[in-house]
Amino acid sequence: MSDGKACLPFWEGFHMVDLQVGADTVHITLEPDPASRLSCGSCERGDLPVHEFCRRRIRDLPMLGKAVLLQVTLRRVACPDCGARMEAVPWLERHARLTRRLADAASTLCARMATAHVAALFGLHWSTVRTLDQRRLTRTIEALPEAMPRRLAMDEFALYKGHRYASVVLDADTRRVLWIGEGRSRAAIRPFFQALGEAGCARIEAVAMDMNTAFDLEVRQHCPNARVIYDLFHVIAKYGREVISRVRVDAANRLHHDKPARRVVKRSHWLLLRNPASLKDHERVRLDDVLQANQSLLAVYVMKEQLKALWSAPTARAWRAAWKQWLAHAQESGIPALMHFAKCLRPYWRGIVSRVRWPMHTGQLEGINNKIKVIKRMAYGYRDSAYFFLKIKAAFPGNP
């Protein structure tokens, strides 16, 4: 304990009059310096009379592994403009129970650690740390330059278990996450276009997406000049689920009397779906054996490669010829799953041929979605979706 007064640079405008060191906590008593300038905490008007004194307990950064508790005497000033207001303190936010140093340290550390871990490190409640981090994220996002997107990419990612999704919109040129919202319906993504405004929507030239009808219809309604481009990965993935997997299951069922052959077909699932260039030598041998043993699987596998070639057509004329040929082969195959897929794909032809003029895809968003999963795993999930979305937007501010 010290009987004298000590003026330290940590607490500008105050004297330390008492220091008590406990086993886990350091208690410090601070009194205002009479020589310090007294100003209003709202309008910062100076040279004001004291209205009353009050005491407040404030947390500061730990010292030597011990928590620091400040017992501070604060003054309320009689401001002619604002009335009775708390004095302005450089190292303390208005109404705050934490010093600026502690608040900045906790919020900065949230960029690398989970909120719960930061709270445990500083001995704070997790909701307090979350509020501090939300303020930091909001300031970071508001400091970004105004977005003027011309090309967009739209996709969805799993938000919670039980088929709960969120939609994300990316500036395809700067890789900046522009907007995130819960759901994947038209109503869920409409707020983005409303916030973009009529002039912003008219500026959009192209939008890459999967074959999500809600995204498609909303883009066509709000962005009259935009061309929709369907992503190759999503179309081929849909083909794999609805055609190749169906034909493989049917082929395996027809081989119920030949168990070894049936086992080979059943185990060929990933061989049929993977990119041929990614297969190893022994996997190519297995794939060739499966395709030679079943004509239906061979047909849908070849048709998959022809479908992928549509996205690399050099001109619209070449695309149109390849498209008509693919549809004709699908109809002539006599395979129900393939014929049904071709019938469902036919209305989407404009979004596929647009790839010739706009070589876009949602691959950027797929990589971002993987990073989103990492952000989510760091916290073992978020209780507040708005906070989670702020974390994502701040993590992808875009390229300069």
Automatic annotation (TrEMBL):
Domain Transposase IS204/IS1001/IS1096/IS1165 helix-turn-helix: 87-135
Domain Transposase IS204/IS1001/IS1096/IS1165 DDE stretches: 152-392
InterPro entries registered for this protein in UniProt: Transpos_ISL3, Transposase_DDE, Transposase_HTH, Transposase_Znf
Span of the signal peptide: none
Residue ranges annotated for the Transposase IS204/IS1001/IS1096/IS1165 zinc-finger domain, each copy included: 39-82
Designated name of the protein: Transposase
